[in-house]
Design a protein that fits this description.
Length: 322
């Protein structure tokens, strides 16, 4: 018998989302004219890309297929995604790769700090994949990244966009102790859609996490965001705003959900700009210090400018109460 070695056929490519591979296709709707983005590719965009690559970093801008990448990277604004590029959850809206992640890279904090310095960022946003496999959900690694940036760029303000740490005891406390300027944790959607959109998470745990940040440090800015167009009712969004205000959250972002692939959750509808405007007006009336609501709003979009506005809004409120 002769054994034939197949050295020609390409290796089977591992699916990006193995858990979604057998799901039925959801057709991708044509985007309306109000969702138009700048094409990537300016010289500054390429420079940003080079700094990201040279430092071996991962960005959520690329991994999540963010529509704003052309605009943000042309201003040297990238959001770093730490703890690898593989997530232990499998949310129905998210394009980040899922599976079993690698061990943590102990040099990553220094490399993130180095890239922050090279990009000359006045405000940096750090997010991560979910690391349910780690004892602290990755909280200590967040703290190490914050410390490394403080060390090399002491004037840079730092915003973290964290997972829920799977309710691991002490995790939020570790991150708050590291003193980021903004603590962001996204609710992503209304509670009635959690089981289909964000099945690994619990709505009231996320609210509680944000409330806990304020209990630990009342001066720390808190922020949360949702996507609309997933099938939520307007009244549910208004209720969610109230829940966030009870947790004393300062800043709310609302953006249109865009479907990454046919295997992801379908877009129920494209919410028109005037509806975003109406959400914004109501959210301000409910007491948020800052609201960003538009079809292309994303958690980290214009985060630096928004941080300056947030600080100004607090100073104004404190001035009025003196
Ligand atoms: S909005 Fe955020 S995730 Fe999207 S490109 Fe800009 S910085 Fe990156």
């Amino acid at each position: 018998m002769v054994t034939v070695l197949d050295t020609v056929s390409p290796k089977p490519v591992k699916p990006r989302h193995p858990e979604k591979a057998h799901r039925p296709d959801n057709p991708i709707l044509r985007k309306p004219e109000w969702i138009r983005v700048k094409a990537p590719g300016s010289p500054v965009y390429n420079e940003t890309a080079k700094i990201v690559r040279d430092n071996g970093l991962v960005t959520v801008c690329e991994e999540a297929g963010c529509p704003n990448i052309g605009e943000c990277w042309s201003k040297k604004h990238a959001t770093f995604m730490i703890m690898g590029e593989v997530c232990t959850r499998a949310c129905a809206f998210c394009n980040v790769r899922t599976g079993l992640p690698d061990a943590l890279d102990g040099d990553e904090p220094e490399r993130v700090a180095e890239a922050t310095k090279k990009l000359g960022l006045e405000h940096v946003v750090i997010t991560s994949v979910d690391r349910d496999d780690l004892d602290d959900g990755g909280a200590r690694h967040f703290a190490n990244v914050i410390a490394a940036i403080r060390n090399t760029s002491p004037k840079t303000t730092i915003e973290v966009l964290t997972p829920d740490f799977l309710r691991k005891p002490g995790a939020v406390e570790i991150v708050v102790e590291a003193q980021p300027d903004v603590f962001n944790h996204n609710l992503e959607t209304v509670p009635s859609l959690y089981l289909t959109v964000r099945p690994g998470a619990r709505y009231f745990h996320s609210i509680r996490l944000l409330q806990r940040v304020k209990e630990l440090d009342p001066a720390m800015f808190t922020k949360s965001g949702i996507m609309v167009g997933l099938g939520e009712e307007r009244n549910e969004v208004l209720q969610l705003m109230d829940d966030l205000r009870v947790a004393d959250v300062d800043f709310l972002t609302i953006g249109q959900y865009l479907q990454p692939t046919r295997k992801h959750h379908k877009v129920d509808r494209f919410v028109p700009p005037e509806e975003f405007k109406s959400y914004e007006t109501i959210a301000y009336a409910k007491g948020f210090s800052l609201v960003s609501a538009s079809p292309l709003t994303r958690s980290s979009h214009h985060a630096g400018d928004d941080f300056a506005k947030l600080r100004a809004a607090r100073e104004k409120a404190l001035g009025a109460s003196r």
